[in-house]
Amino acid sequence: MSVQNKKVHPYKFNLWLGLAGIIMMFAGLTSAYIVKRSQPGWESFNLPRIFLYSTVVILISSITIQIAYRAFKEHDMPRYRLFFAVTGVLGIMFMIMQVVGFYQFRDMGMIMTGIGSKPAYSFILAIAGLHIVHVLGGVIALIIIFLKAFSSTKRVYDSIPVEIVTTYWHFVDILWVYLFVFFSLLH
User: Fold this and answer.
1) pTM attached to this predicted model
2) 21-24 contacts: CB < 8 A, separation 24 or more?
3) How far apart are CA 5 and CA 39, in angstroms?
């Protein structure tokens, strides 16, 4: 195997650098949460059930994007387009369910920002809100790659963009599972 074949594609390298930065950010936020929860005035909470449902939705989306990626590698464009689209819809459903969960927190009397807010509730908003932003970035990437699948001008099967989006999507899925377990155990 030549040295050229052992090199990591620059886009993949950039993705891994970005993921490392995201990991560090969420590790810092969850560490701060652990430290802050030992202070007086910290209030416990239970996650609304919709967060469990959203976890199931994002896990299913990990399966659908993997099916789409395999279909792309097999040059099965109809199946690829279908499962990529399903993944995008599931990503949007996840974000909507998260927002509904925040409204359920509000209905439970949990003020997350401004006067009367509690640090525990503000941390939930900051951490889960940042995750939603990362999922939104993934959905935008899904849409861009999905639209390229319909391009009539380019028929080259370059798997790098699809692989990068798939890897990123699995990452945000795993990140949410970590956050869900974290909040469930340390509420």
Assistant:
1) 0.89
2) 22/134, 22/171, 22/175
3) 53
Which contacts qualify for 22-27: CB closer than 8 Å, 24 or more apart?
22/134, 22/171, 22/175, 25/130, 26/127, 26/130, 26/131, 26/175, 26/178, 26/179
Contacts of range 34-40, beta carbons closer than 8 Å, 24 or more positions apart: 34/186, 36/119, 36/120, 36/123, 37/120, 37/186, 39/119
User: Both tokens of residue 147?
Assistant: 């639209």
Which of 128, 126, 119 minimizes the C-alpha distance to 54? 128
* Amino acid identity for residue 65 in this structure: I
Please report the domains of the chain, with CATH numbers, ordered by start residue.
3-185 (1.20.120.80)
pLDDT, tens digit, for every residue of 48-88? 999 999 999 999 999 999 999 999 999 998 999 999 999 99
